[in-house]
């Protein structure tokens, strides 16, 4: 049965929002895997674990915010299987941060595709929602990860990595 509140909300946009919900939960899952990895006794980088746990929580919140938006517009949330992370071993903190950077760029591209689609359908409300709630945060997050990669490389292993772990965790 069609929703009574649905207005200027195209089925393609609804499908893309469901795809984005899945992507946000997948990103949360990947970050959770990274947090678990750095929390292991053979890694013991609790600052990095905390950082990735925080990112996992944020991505899950993004997915839930999209679910709420879908309902407000009269759409239906359709859950799909969430793919498992591509790895359970994340290597060095630089390796993990570079993987996180690629993940964020992929999420950002998906949001840009969603924005382009809703713009082509004349859905100003969805465009505003994506811009206001996601795009600026994505750009800032990508910049933050890029900066952190540079700082970790500059700090080097040993004491430098220990200091970075403490700073990232605080």
Top keywords for this entry?
5 helices; 170 residues; mainly alpha; 75% helix
Architecture overview:
This protein is an all-alpha fold and 170 residues long. 75% of the residues lie in helices and 0% in strands. The chain is built from 5 helices and no strands. α3 (93-120) packs antiparallel against α4. The radius of gyration is 18 Å and the shape is elongated. The model has no long low-confidence stretch (mean pLDDT 96).
Alpha-carbon distance between the termini?
50 Å
List the helices and strands in order: HHHHH
What is the overall silhouette? elongated
**Rg (C-alpha, Å):** 18 Å
DSSP, total strands = 0
Instruction: Detail the poorly predicted runs.
Output: none
Average residue-wise pLDDT: 96
Structural class: mainly alpha
Q: Strand portion, in percent?
A: under 5%
Q: State the major sheet.
A: none
Helical coverage, percent range = over 70%
Please count the helical segments: 5
Record the SSE blueprint.
Layout (H helix, E strand, L loop, with lengths): L10 H29 L6 H27 L20 H28 L3 H32 L3 H11 L1
Helix pairs in contact: 1-2, 1-3, 2-5, 3-4, 4-5
Summarize the structure.
With 170 residues, the chain is mainly alpha-helical.
């Amino acid at each position: 049965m069609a929703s009574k509140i649905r207005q200027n909300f195209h089925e393609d946009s609804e499908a893309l929002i469901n795809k984005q919900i899945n992507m946000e939960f997948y990103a949360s899952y990947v970050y959770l895997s990274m947090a678990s990895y750095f929390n292991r006794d053979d890694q013991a980088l609790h600052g990095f674990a905390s950082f990735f746990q925080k990112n996992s929580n944020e991505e899950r919140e993004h997915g839930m915010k999209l679910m709420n938006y879908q309902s407000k517009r009269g759409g239906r949330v359709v859950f799909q299987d969430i793919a498992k992370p591509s790895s359970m071993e994340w290597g060095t903190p630089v390796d993990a941060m570079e993987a996180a950077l690629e993940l964020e760029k992929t999420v950002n591209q998906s949001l840009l595709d969603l924005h382009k689609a809703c713009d082509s359908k004349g859905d100003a409300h969805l465009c505003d929602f994506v811009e206001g709630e996601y795009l600026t945060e994505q750009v800032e997050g990508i910049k933050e990860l890029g900066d952190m990669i540079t700082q970790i490389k500059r700090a080097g292993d040993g004491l430098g990595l220990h200091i970075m772990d403490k700073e990232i965790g605080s």
